[in-house]
Write a structure and sequence with these properties.
eight-stranded mixed beta sheet; 262 residues; two-stranded antiparallel sheet
């Protein structure tokens, strides 16, 4: 009977929404949808434009922020935009456009068996659309990918799988995993390209954050001679606010040398 109750509860659990109605958005943050041919549905995203965007003609760096499991395109859009504004004010990183995609519960991978293609949507549909519509990104040295938890792990895997797309990555509370797997495989396969591109990776790791613990992954980065910095935070668990306070400026300052600002 217990097993049947659990199965019924799982069956009644709604799938993550493809688009979420926005609540209160901070200045500079907006919400919109784009039709995904790969998924056959409209998918929501949020976008932050810096204060100088409307009066400028320059092309801005593009920062992609990937939310964690259970999140959506609105998850921390206001918070992260404010964090990056502070980093810009500290002269640690240039003014940037920020893209917040909806990754559902995909791990930012394609899942053909579920007819869900988030990686294809993100890189082949949403990213080109944003870069065509707004003066942002457009080349590897104008893109940074970042994220928390599932988004941190997704940032590492996507950056290694597509080594010519991003100048760097900032991963909080999630990275390449504790054991060799797809991210390790992509790292090994594309290490030459990552080194040639001077790719830079920053990892924020809470001492008590079980999702971020890995000795094998930093070892693999060292073996492949990838530029990285790993900051362990004493006493910190799976806490995005703490990661922001204690590592956000350090992380973006570390990846900033890879960005070409106009």
């Amino acid at each position: 009977m217990v097993g049947l109750v659990l199965l019924a509860a799982v069956a009644q659990t709604p799938a993550p929404a493809w688009s979420t109605e926005p609540g209160s958005l901070d200045p500079g943050v907006s919400h919109a949808v784009i039709h995904s041919k790969a998924n056959g549905v409209d998918v929501g995203y949020s976008l932050y434009l810096p204060p100088s965007y409307e009066k400028s003609k320059k092309r801005y760096p593009l920062v992609i922020f990937l939310h964690g499991a259970g999140g959506n395109e609105l998850s921390d859009a206001n918070g992260f935009a404010g964090v990056l504004e502070g980093i810009v004010d500290a002269k640690a990183f240039p003014e940037s456009v920020i893209l917040f995609p909806n990754g559902r519960m995909s791990g930012y991978r394609d899942h053909p068996d579920q007819k869900e293609f988030i990686e294809t949507y993100l890189l082949d549909e949403l990213l080109p659309y944003i870069e065509k519509t707004y003066r942002a990104g457009g080349s590897r040295n104008k893109r940074i990918i970042s994220g928390f938890s599932m988004g941190g792990a997704g940032s590492c895997r996507l950056a290694f799988t597509h080594p010519n797309l991003f100048a760097g990555a900032v991963a909080w509370g999630g990275n390449g995993g504790r054991e060799p797997g797809p991210t390790f495989d992509a790292l090994k396969l594309n290490a030459d390209k990552l080194r040639k591109n001077n790719f830079r990776l920053f990892m924020g790791v809470g001492e008590k954050d079980e999702f971020a613990q890995s000795e094998a992954f930093p070892g693999a980065l060292t073996t492949e001679r990838i530029l990285f910095e790993r900051k362990v935070l004493p006493g910190i668990g799976h806490d995005l606010g703490a990661y922001y306070r204690m590592t956000a400026e350090d992380g973006f300052r570390f990846v900033a040398p890879g960005i070409k600002a106009d």
